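testing teh design pipeline on a random one, pls ignore if ur not involved
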């Protein structure tokens, strides 16, 4: 026999396990908040921009093929910026003990879509260090590219700067807490339904009929002990009153 679950049963399950769901959700939110505020190290980001200028010949105008070639050249620059040829010199100039490999993990190079602007972003625990790395990479690259590719069409468009009260890009505690709230709620609801699914105890006559497939012939009502005591007390009072009337007569 195919089993169907009504919306009422689902709501009853959620109501029954509401304390469990709230406990799991609250625990997830608290853990996320504590970890985000007290254990995760803030990471700051600094960015600089390079402009790749298209060389123009006096006798020729800029055409589509030249523009496409220039955009392909930007992709080549993106690779060269993170190469050991550049980062070894950056590490040496910074003098902070960072290796080229470590710098590579901090640097992200990208370019705006269909533009000649290259973005160099650096993430570090120290905002000043992030800005220094970004500016040093841009400076070293603009100098070394002259010898590497015999071109001098790269200029620094916007150097990286450190602003007062600069906020870290990660972690984002509020976002982490919101995610933990959703995940904790989903985990709590899932666990509630899972516990209900594996709960095979018989709670009412409907469970007997569903599990055994037999019709219900009768139901023994559950009598409240308080009501039992009240009924007993009333009977005892009546008996006492009846004895008193018998003695009086």
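output:
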């Amino acid at each position: 026999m195919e089993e169907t679950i009504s919306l009422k049963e689902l709501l009853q399950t959620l109501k029954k396990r509401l304390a469990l769901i709230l406990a799991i959700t609250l625990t997830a939110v608290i853990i996320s908040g504590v970890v985000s505020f007290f254990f995760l190290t803030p990471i700051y980001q600094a960015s600089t921009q390079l402009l790749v200028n298209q060389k123009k010949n006096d006798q020729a105008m800029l055409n589509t093929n030249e523009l496409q070639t220039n955009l392909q050249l930007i992709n080549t620059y993106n690779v060269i910026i993170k190469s050991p040829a550049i980062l070894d010199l950056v590490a040496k100039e910074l003098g902070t003990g960072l290796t080229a490999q470590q710098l590579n993990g901090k640097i992200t190079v990208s370019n705006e879509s269909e533009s000649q602007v290259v973005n160099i972003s650096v993430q570090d625990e120290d905002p000043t260090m992030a800005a220094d790395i970004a500016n040093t990479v841009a400076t070293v690259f603009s100098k070394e590219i002259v010898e590497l590719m015999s071109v001098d069409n790269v200029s620094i468009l916007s150097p990286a700067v450190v602003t007062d009260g600069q906020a870290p890009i990660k972690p984002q505690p509020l976002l982490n807490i919101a995610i933990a709230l959703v995940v904790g709620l989903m985990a709590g609801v899932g666990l509630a339904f899972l516990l209900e699914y594996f709960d095979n105890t018989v709670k009412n006559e409907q469970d007997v009929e569903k599990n055994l497939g037999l019709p219900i012939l009768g139901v023994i009502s559950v009598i409240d002990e308080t009501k039992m005591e009240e009924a007993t007390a009333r009977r005892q009072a009546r008996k006492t009153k009846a004895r008193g009337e018998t003695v009086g007569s």
